[in-house]
Amino acid sequence: MTHDNRWVKQVTLPPPSLGDNTADADRLAAVLQKSLGVRTVHMDLALLKQLPARLREWNFRTTAVLFKDGSGNGILVHLTAPNGADTLCGLAVDLGTTRVVLRIIDLSTGAHMGESVFDNPQIAIGPDVLARIHHVEKPDGLKQLNQLIVDGINDALAILCDRCGVSRANIHLMAVAGNTAMTHLLIGLNPRWMIREPYIPVVNRPDILTAAELGIHVHPTARALIFPNVGSYLGGDLIAGILYCDMDQREETAILVDVGTNAEVVLGNRNWMMACAGAAGPALEGSVTRMGAMAGPGVIDRIAIDSESLAVDIHTIDDQPPRGICGSGVIDLAAALFRSGMIDIRGKLLPNRCGDRFSLKDGLAHLTIVPAGQSATGQDLGITQVDLDSLVRSKAAMYTILETITGSVGMQQQDLETFFVAGTFGAYIDPASAITIGMIPDLPLARFQSLGNSSLGGATRVLENPACVDRINQIRDGITYMELNVNQDFMNRFSAAKFLPHTDTSRFPSVRWSAARPPMA
Fold it and tell me: The domain containing residue 377 runs over which residues?
């Protein structure tokens, strides 16, 4: 047998004899236990029924697909002919509130075969977690939400399999990472009590399920690992992120920030981890402004303003005509407005400095970024004072979360050697802009690392390396959760952070010049 570190094992068994009349299943289990490093190996009845004929047909050589449960027990998922022609595949799923990403990998080699992304069809019920949980109260509400996501995965998977040249029956393992509410809705569990004090989910650590139980159309005996959650507001997507960036194995202390429905933050190293979550997400996800949009073609992700001429320079994703602005673009915009003196330290638009871009619409101060004639929508793209006020609150919440969690363990933010930023937000954000508005600490830019889709990355690692299953549970059990809602320090610090970049400008030496720059009349 080869002892490669994969879920797929090439197995050679000693054939039975009069001197060794061990049962077929016990003979196979003994070898698999040693290979996987487990005490027991479970085999489904359907597989046991095929075992005698298959082992003899293959001359006691076989290829096995294995898995582990959360207790460290082995599972024999599938047996096939030694060196068979079929590709044995796994499916990694990033189960996002807004978007779902699928990735097929070759379990034998770890090669990534293909990916697809689609909007979470539950958006038709409600754009956010709260709306969907309230929908559960309606007759068949839970069933409807569950069916939407199951059908969405099945439809997207069928297309992806065709593109990769594999059958859905070739998929034997799944790993799914998502927030607590999304995983509840996929499993079909009622999330009602997650949003009611004292905020209790149905389960924090789901058992290994069969794909058939979930209604996912892959091999009937395929197994699915749903990443565990710490509680209602810290989900499996964060656990996946920690696994992906190896925070649980690092000597030095690092911080991981994932901005989505909430801002989820974890601080720690191999010896300890502290985590918290707060409502800094929605305004930074794109809903801060009427021109807000999720990252996609034509969405503005970069903005610069010339400090002398005040000319606006924009960049859109895929260089398409502008149709909206995503979170990173909003942060860039606020930073550019501040640097150029078009807003003050409170984030208030200064009409004299803004010139003809400034207007009052329905009594609201408004700044035009892209005139109607240059936009894909045929309408002005701009930002209102209400939008900017919302952004200032969100950036203050973000900074305060980071300040509170580092302070709780006696650290200064400047002591952070590595600052991981995850998700779509992390892929597009310019740390220099986020520092300028005081959203993240003023650290050397080299310390910031974008992880991209760490939720998908963590799910993929589970399918690539059996050791990651044990690490998932160790990570989950090693996290201490800090509740911000009852933290008086948080509220005091939040008030101080509602200025650009902060009431204490000495915390942001790299942007002190822009804060001191007087707005031009």
Answer: 283-391
